[in-house]
């Protein structure tokens, strides 16, 4: 027996799809952002800060960009893979494991307390251990070029 899709079923399906895409990741605002990174293992080292304009694509793919950036920080001579990753509207959590000369594990957690601010920590353990505090704050619109 073939059933017809009623307007109610179509509406439920549309709402379900919308809620799944809504739950995918944080809702950050594009614009000029200030980023800060503080290494906890080096006493007295000032935070490294920089500014960058985030485009709508950057904020849409924020979790993927964080993972890609974390991978770029690891050297080419070790084999690394993401072993866990979760992304919600309020948090991104991941684990990287690397084998080779430098066995290491990197665990990251970022919490989004608004569309204009986040903070988090990346802990690395293995041959060397470190903790990196990260923070992002939206400053406003990107300057005109």
- The number of helical segments is 3
Spans of at least 5 consecutive residues whose pLDDT stays below 50 are: 1-23
Number of domains: 1
Structural class: alpha+beta
Percentage of β-strand residues: over 45%
Largest sheet: 7 strands, antiparallel
Description:
This protein has 145 residues and is α+β, with helices and mostly antiparallel strands. It has one domain (28-140). 23% of the residues lie in helices and 46% in strands. The protein is built from 3 helices and 7 strands; from the N terminus they run αββααβββββ. The protein has helices spanning 7-22, 56-60, 62-73; strands at 31-39, 48-54, 79-87, 91-99, 104-114, 117-126, 130-140. Strands 2-1-7-6-5-4-3 form a 7-stranded antiparallel sheet. The longest helix has 16 residues, at 7-22. It is globular. The model is unreliable at 1-23 (pLDDT under 50).
Could you write a compact summary of the structure shown?
The protein has helices at 7-22, 56-60, 62-73, and strands spanning 31-39, 48-54, 79-87, 91-99, 104-114, 117-126, 130-140. The protein is α+β, with helices and mostly antiparallel strands.
């Amino acid at each position: 027996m073939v059933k017809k899709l009623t307007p109610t079923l179509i509406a439920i399906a549309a709402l379900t799809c919308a809620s799944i895409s809504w739950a995918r990741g944080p809702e950050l605002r594009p614009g000029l952002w200030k980023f800060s990174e503080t290494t906890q293992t080096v006493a007295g080292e000032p935070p490294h800060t920089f500014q960058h304009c985030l485009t709508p694509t950057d904020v849409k793919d924020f979790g993927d960009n964080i993972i890609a950036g974390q991978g770029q920080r690891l050297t080419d001579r070790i084999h690394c893979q993401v072993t866990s990753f979760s992304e919600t509207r309020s948090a991104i959590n991941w684990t990287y494991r690397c084998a080779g000369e430098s066995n290491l594990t990197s665990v990251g957690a970022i919490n989004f307390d608004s569309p204009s601010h986040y903070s988090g920590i990346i802990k690395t353990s293995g041959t060397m251990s470190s903790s990196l505090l990260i923070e992002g704050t939206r400053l406003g619109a990107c300057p005109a070029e």
